[in-house]
């Protein structure tokens, strides 16, 4: 059992974790065509973007989504309650460069699988997302 | 079974689609208009069909839409409803600012008035037609006569009603066929509806001798593979001896259908096609491929409608027109397609043309650079208050034309290839695309290949 019953409850701990990893500029529910990226971040220092999909259980659906997010983010992660993260097929994530974050009931996070930089990123999409991020965060 | 050249009939949903029809119909095999559209805009519809006849001489059909006055299964609750609510809309109350009331749509009200009893009485009482409304054979005969006359003559009479256009009336040919009135075979009262539809079909074939009669089988998906009921419907149809039979199984989607359902569709085609032309009322590539086993053709809209529920779920927002991927005979988002580029080795426009599409629209868009492909999915905020971005009209238009051009290519290719070759192509495409992000949604191709070659 986990204390998390809604995906939105994962947001705060995951956002804190991403911030500590350098992704200081963040936006929630960032539009990407018909999708809404749960958390999108930009690290000015590393010139890197990250897209994170929050999920309670359905990691396969999250894989489909994050593979699309790779078009606009250098790094993509699935974030799940730690107990659910244990059931994920990690080799499938690794083969696609997708990272996995486990969220403990205490609110701390651990990086279970490290996301890899990949070749799928489409620069115009990435730039648009960074621009949107800068405009909305500063607004 | 007799192999026939597959026909693709375009269905015009509204006059906003006329540009697509005007530009492409000469490459298709006919156009269908709903009686409700004809009745709400008779002048515009008659003029358009006359113009289309002049441009390309393709035949037209009028769907009498009689099923709209029957009972239906609510798509949200699965309960049978006889309140005709789905042909109602909220309409402004004159003189009361901002107030609305739920009333029958003008198109269906006018259609019921034209068709007369029992259609008009159903609207007056606010309850759907039942078999009891047709208990008297005189009512059946009168309804069939009116509905035949509507399809055969309504458009021409529109010209005759105006002295300035009266001379044009005879320039417009009659429809290629007339449909017998038909109702949805609602699962809770199957026998009743089957019986009524059969009587209407018999009366129509008996009355109409100068135009071929087509009969529509409009039923729930359960009917498709039900052994006893489908045998009964086939027996009824063979007894009527219509020139054509149109199959419409609500909720049937070629891409999502099980192997059993696809085999059942094949069975219907094989049973009926030796004695009549068989069409899928709403179908796509699989129906075209069934032409090798006797299916005469299929129908769909200009950017949608390869599957249609009898009572559609009405969304709040305008649906996105997705990009049609001919290799998989299905539609996907621009992002999904784009995410496959690396895995498929698509690095430049030439790769795109050879591996995805080389239609005139794609050549114009992607020819300027692979980075232009997202133009098919371009989005914007349609009003300053819009909360969600929606596809731009220009992007939707690109997708629709791309789809229509691809459908022509598919039809022509099906005609050229043998059935085993079509099945092999399906299986090969599934294998190639299974490596990509959309691989899991290409499994229908394997099922299609198996069904098309079953028993060989």
Describe this structure in words.
- The complex is a heterodimer of chains A (139) and B (456).
- With 139 residues, chain A is an alpha/beta fold.
- Chain A is built from five helices and six strands; from the N terminus they run H-E-E-E-H-E-H-H-E-E-H.
- Chain A has a six-stranded mixed sheet with strand order 1-2-3-4-5-6, with helices on both faces.
- In chain A, strand 3, helix 2 and strand 4 form a beta-alpha-beta unit.
- Chain A is globular and about 40 Å long.
- The model of chain B has no long low-confidence stretch (mean pLDDT 94).
- Chain B has 18 helices and 16 strands.
- Chain A binds chain B through residues 31-35, 64, 67-68, 70-71, 119-120, 122, 124, and chain B through 320, 333-336, 338-339, 342, 371, 374, 377, 379, 388-389, 437, 440.
> What order do the SSEs of chain A take from the amino end to the carboxyl end, as H and E?
HEEEHEHHEEH
Number of strands of chain B: 16
User: End-to-end distance of chain A, in Å?
Assistant: 40 Å
Percent in helix of chain B = 40-55%
Radius of gyration of chain B: 23 Å
Outline the fold blueprint.
The complex is a heterodimer of chains A (139) and B (456).
Chain A: H1 8-20, E1 25-32, E2 35-43, E3 48-54, H2 59-69, E4 75-81, H3 82-85, H4 90-95, E5 99-103, E6 109-113, H5 123-138
Parallel strand pairs in A: 3-4, 4-5
Antiparallel strand pairs in A: 1-2, 2-3, 5-6
Chain B: E1 7-12, H1 18-24, E2 31-34, H2 35-40, H3 42-56, E3 60-63, E4 72-73, E5 80-81, E6 88-92, E7 100-104, H4 106-115, H5 119-125, H6 137-160, E8 178-179, H7 190-207, E9 213-220, H8 221-224, H9 227-240, E10 244-250, H10 259-272, E11 277-280, H11 285-289, E12 295-300, E13 323-325, E14 330-332, H12 334-338, H13 341-344, H14 349-355, H15 360-366, E15 379-380, E16 390-391, H16 393-416, H17 419-433, H18 444-452
Parallel strand pairs in B: 1-2, 1-12, 2-3, 8-9, 9-10, 10-11, 11-12
Antiparallel strand pairs in B: 4-5, 6-7, 13-14, 15-16
Helix pairs in contact in B: 3-6, 4-5, 6-7, 7-9, 10-18, 17-18
């Amino acid at each position: 059992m986990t204390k998390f019953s809604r995906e939105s409850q994962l947001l705060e701990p995951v956002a804190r974790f991403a911030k500590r990893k350098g992704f200081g500029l963040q936006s929630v529910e960032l539009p990407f065509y018909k999708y809404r990226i749960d958390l999108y971040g930009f690290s000015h220092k590393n010139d890197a973007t990250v897209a994170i999909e929050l999920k309670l259980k359905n990691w396969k659906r999250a894989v489909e989504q994050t593979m699309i997010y790779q078009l606009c983010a250098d790094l993509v992660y699935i974030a799940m309650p730690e107990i659910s993260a244990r059931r994920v097929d990690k080799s499938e994530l690794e083969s696609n460069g997708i990272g996995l974050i486990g969220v403990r009931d205490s609110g701390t996070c651990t990086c279970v699988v490290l996301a890899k930089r990949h070749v799928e990123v489409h620069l115009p999409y990435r730039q648009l997302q960074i621009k949107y991020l800068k405009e909305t965060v500063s607004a | 079974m007799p192999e026939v050249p597959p026909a693709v009939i375009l269905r015009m949903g509204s006059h906003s689609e006329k540009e697509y029809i005007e530009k492409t119909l000469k490459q298709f095999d006919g156009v269908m208009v709903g009686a409700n559209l004809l009745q709400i805009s008779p002048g515009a519809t008659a003029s358009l069909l006359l113009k289309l006849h002049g441009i390309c001489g393709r035949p037209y059909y009028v769907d009498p839409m009689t099923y709209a006055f029957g009972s239906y299964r609510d798509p949200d609750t699965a309960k049978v409803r006889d309140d005709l609510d789905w042909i109602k809309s909220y309409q402004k109350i004159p003189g009361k600012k901002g107030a609305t009331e739920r009333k029958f749509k003008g198109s269906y009200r006018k259609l019921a008035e034209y068709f007369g009893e029992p259609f008009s009485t159903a609207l007056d009482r606010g309850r759907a037609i039942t078999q009891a409304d047709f208990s008297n054979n005189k009512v059946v005969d009168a309804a069939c006569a009116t509905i035949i006359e509507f399809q055969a003559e309504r458009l021409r009479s529109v010209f005759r009603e105006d002295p300035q256009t009266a001379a044009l009336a005879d320039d417009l040919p009659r429809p290629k066929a007339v449909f017998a009135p038909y109702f949805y075979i609602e699962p809770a009262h199957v026998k009743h509806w089957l019986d009524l539809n059969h009587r209407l079909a018999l009366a129509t074939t008996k009355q109409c001798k100068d135009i071929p009669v087509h009969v529509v089988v409009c039923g729930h998906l359960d009917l498709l593979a039900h052994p006893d009921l489908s045998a009964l419907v086939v027996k009824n149809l063979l007894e009527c001896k219509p020139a054509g039979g149109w199959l419409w199984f609500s909720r049937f989607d070629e891409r999502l259908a099980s192997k059993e359902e696809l085999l059942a569709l094949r069975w219907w085609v094989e049973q009926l096609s030796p004695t009549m032309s068989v069409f899928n009322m709403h179908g796509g590539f699989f129906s075209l491929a069934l032409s090798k086993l006797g299916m005469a053709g299929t129908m769909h809209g200009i950017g949608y409608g390869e599957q249609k529920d009898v009572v559609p779920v009405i969304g709040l927002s305008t649906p996105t027109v997705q990009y049609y991927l001919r290799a998989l005979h299905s539609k996907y988002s621009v992002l999904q397609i784009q995410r496959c580029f690396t895995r498929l080795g698509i690095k430049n426009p030439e790769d795109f043309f050879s591996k995805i599409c080389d239609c005139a629209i794609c050549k114009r868009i992607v020819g300027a650079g692979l980075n232009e492909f997202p133009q098919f999915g371009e989005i914007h905020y349609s009003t300053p208050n819009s909360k969600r971005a929606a596809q731009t009209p220009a992007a939707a238009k690109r997708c629709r034309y791309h789809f229509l051009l691809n459908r022509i290519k598919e039809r022509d290719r099906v005609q050229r290839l043998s059935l085993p070759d079509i099945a092999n192509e399906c299986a090969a495409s599934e294998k190639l695309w299974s490596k990509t992000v959309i691989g899991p949604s290409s499994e229908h191709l394997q099922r299609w290949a198996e069904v098309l070659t079953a028993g060989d």
